[in-house]
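S.,

Sequence below, as promised.
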Amino acid sequence: MTSSGGRLPGTPGMRFSLHREPRGQLPPGMKDAYVESPSAQEELEARFRVRDQERPSWQERLERAERRRQKRLERDAQRRALKLTKQVEPVSRHDIIVRDASTCYLCGRLLTADEVHLDHVIPLARGGAHTADNLRVACAPCNQSKGATMPSG
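The prediction came back faster than expected:
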């Protein structure tokens, strides 16, 4: 097999490259090799600028990912509840945090929004319901150490 010297077989004059340029930068020599007129070059550069401006910032992407994660966690809790018990109702995470004043019901510590876990007082594994009455705000260490045990008194 012979090398085509950077050209696809059967496409004389058309170059290809496996190397991708970073967004917003044109490959070196693009003006000479790929674009015939200065107006086409300006149009191509403008397209790169618009594409880069439309991309969300990394903070927005992180926030969007966190919202998707929270929705997934809530959906998973509902699925587990449906498997183990028949009592499932829509639960607003925000309402429960406001109701419990962002305070861990096990240790009494005041929590920030990032530290809040929702805990089933009667665990789903023990037949508890996925309802607002059975959910409480807990900190991560308390929630993880409690596991699927029932609260004592």
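The longest helix spans residues 58-84.

Coffee later?
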